[in-house]
Amino acid sequence: MTCRPISAEQHLAHIGQRGSASFLQTPAWAKVKSEWRGESVGFFDGDDLVGVALVLYRQLPKLKRYLAYLPEGPVLDWARPDVAEALQAFVTYAKKRKAFAVRIGPTLVHRRWLAPTIKDAVADDDVTRLSDVTPDETTLLGTRVRNLLLHGGWVTDETGEGFAAGQPMFNFQLPLRHDDGSQKSEDELLKGMNQQWRRNIKKAAKEGVVVRQGSREDLAAFHRIYLETAARDGFTGRALSYFETMWDALRAEDPERMKVYLAEHDGDLVAATTMVQVGEHAWYSYGASTNAKREVRGSNAVQWQMIRDANAAGCAVYDLRGITEGVGKDDPEIGLIQFKVGTGGEAVAYLGEWDYAINKPLYFAFTQYLKRR
């Protein structure tokens, strides 16, 4: 097993054969994250390409040494018997590229909590974290790969709160297919939602909320209410140029890769979102809503349109992205999980992000620097 650079075309073709991969593992994402140096790398079993990765390199201050970061990657068949050899091959490759450490984030579901379990956890005063509740499923493959990483010298930090450490370990997903692989109908998806969601979707329609797909020019309108949302919810918003770069890079790779949705009521924009799709996986990536006209339920209407479009496109999963695992009544993010659980989906825990220290003194200094930040 060896690793070497590949072209963007080889990279995309391999993702296409697999059916999907995280959009953070597409060649285009390197153009979005221009402050990092990006590279497409292939995993080869002899001459056969068996895995790919988008590697982002971040240089240490004043040193020509790099963190080699694979956000939500690499794209590998984790059921392969030679996963340990594949990861070691990448470490060997990264060392030649002057990396002091490697950070990976396998998008392999380890634990799964269904909507009824989450609702019970939220209602239970003695439960404060999702991890305190027995999952509805713990996957054997996730457990096997986790043990393989631990025995292979990889380390992970499972104490972090929120999203500060990188990509979120906990995500919320709505399956769009039955167990036999057939697509669910819109009626079935609606029936899976809680009463509040169904009521809000119906109210938005009755109030005359219209949801449409926008163009690049509509990103400015999305951004205006995104900043309004940031001020209301207390987070620092990204610049409009970030979304324009994202739009240009992702849609240059595939015209259907990124979309912007706008929910309007009597000509007023009340909610807006962006959606990203790679193969059979669709993500709700950014959302915004106005302080005015909240009663017309634009946020539910726009979500329902994205779910319907993802389903019509034959996607297997509609991904509402990150959640924190706090389910206590006073948890600052409790509203987020309550909103998402109303779709009838499930919370999934990936394996999280794992580091392999190539140069241990530099890696130790780097982790201390991150803690101080």
TrEMBL record:
<dbReference type="InterPro" id="IPR050644">
    <property type="entry name" value="PG_Glycine_Bridge_Synth"/>
</dbReference>
<dbReference type="Pfam" id="PF02388">
    <property type="entry name" value="FemAB"/>
</dbReference>
<keyword id="KW-0961">Cell wall biogenesis/degradation</keyword>
<keyword id="KW-0133">Cell shape</keyword>
<dbReference type="GO" id="GO:0071555">
    <property type="term" value="P:cell wall organization"/>
</dbReference>
<dbReference type="GO" id="GO:0009252">
    <property type="term" value="P:peptidoglycan biosynthetic process"/>
</dbReference>
<dbReference type="GO" id="GO:0016755">
    <property type="term" value="F:aminoacyltransferase activity"/>
</dbReference>
<dbReference type="InterPro" id="IPR016181">
    <property type="entry name" value="Acyl_CoA_acyltransferase"/>
</dbReference>
<keyword id="KW-0573">Peptidoglycan synthesis</keyword>
<comment type="similarity">
    <text>Belongs to the FemABX family.</text>
</comment>
<dbReference type="GO" id="GO:0008360">
    <property type="term" value="P:regulation of cell shape"/>
</dbReference>
<keyword id="KW-0808">Transferase</keyword>
<protein>
    <submittedName>
        <fullName>Peptidoglycan bridge formation protein FemAB</fullName>
    </submittedName>
</protein>
<keyword id="KW-0012">Acyltransferase</keyword>
<dbReference type="InterPro" id="IPR003447">
    <property type="entry name" value="FEMABX"/>
</dbReference>
